[in-house]
Design a protein that fits this description.
Number of helices: 14
InterPro entries: ArAE_1
Pfam family, one: ArAE_1
Membrane topology: Multi-pass membrane protein
Distance between the termini: 56 Å
Keywords: Cell membrane, Membrane, Transmembrane, Transmembrane helix
Order of helices and strands: HHHHHHHHHHHHHH
Structural class: mainly alpha
Subcellular location: Cell membrane
Shape: elongated
Amino acid sequence: MGTRVREKWERVAEWGGRLRHPESGARRSLLLILKSALAATVSWFISYELIDATSPAFAPFSAVLMVQVTVYQSVIQSLRYVGAVAAGVAVQAVLGLSAGPDLISFALVALAALVISRWRVLGHQGPQVATAAFFAFATYTSATSNSDQVRELGQIVLLVLIGSAVGVAVNVLIAPPLRYRSAEYGIRALAQEIHDLLDAMTPELGEGAPDADTTKGWRDRASRTGSLITQSREGLRTARESLRLNPRPWARRRRRHLTFQAYEQTMEALVRMISQVAAITRTLDQRHREDEDPDSDTDTSEDTEDSDGSDGSDGSDGSDGSDGSGAPRESGGSGDFGDPEASRGPVAEDPRDPEYAPFLRGYSTFLSSVADFTEVLATLDEDHLREQADRLGEAAGHLEECRREVARTTDDHGLSLTDPTEPYGVLVVEATRLSEECRYTAEVLSHSADEPAAEGR
């Protein structure tokens, strides 16, 4: 009993600790609840105590709906909501007053309201047209005279206007939401996902050729990133939107360096890197599939779920004897495929291709350097951008050296980059693309660190 009580208090203390963090989800949720409750209370007081409305609940209901995650959404959704309710009430007023409160009239009201609800201008508030029309019809049937009917219908629109106005006012005047860090969190999440996957792959590749279950696990994991990509892009959209119509005088000044353009460029580079890592896992796994079915063709055309289809290629495929950057590969180099620890011990060889396992051993060194790059990016913080940009630049330089070593030693050992039944061509090309994306990302962030963010970008 004492242990359970202690665990409960520990959870309460942990939740309280999250509340102290200004950007925590717990703090934002609590603030949203308190603001919604305040908006509902004020709306009820106005509609019930001051106006003495017949159906005062319309006001607090509308107020809660209008306390949105951004000020911009509060304003836009309130306009759409009021328009939808007014349209629904208008449908009932025209058809109900002319045809009477019978079943045929209700069917006509429902039909007209549902047609209007499809209007794109109303967006997500479209269904409120039918909802308002049905409530208006119920109110209309309970009225005893035509004047009462008109007054009740007008009162519905008035209460919705009051609730919407109160909801927007509370959201604007009391801690207006600011989500500019959401873009940063999205970049961190994508970088951490790449890092974790590569961190799991490099030890296995360093041991030699991984088994079929291992490569299939990597491939499956790389293909399940679609929802994370969607969430990250949504976070960027919310961050950009949270500055629109935001009355906080310091809202725009909080972004010292990074513009939303820089956030977007960095995020899309990470999306392309996820696609490239997925291509690497498919190639590694495809080798086992070919062992099971020798007549199958190598398939590396799949894209990561919800990816934008960009592969980050600049047209160089590495199959012309170059290192992917347009310059001929350097000759010479050691035969350990870029592994600085040549004394690591015997490597498990593929009996079909004794060069495959040593190649993977060197390739793991390159992927480890990519993991180091994404580890820095997974802690992106605008307040320390200059320092992190320098570290990313150094990591990108080291990463390119590792890639060149892979390309050079591959050439020295005469491994085919054009044979579609061999994995080397795809792996070398994807290494080139990963290196290019890392260098590009480092340059974007370095440029942002050197120039202050322009207001509104």
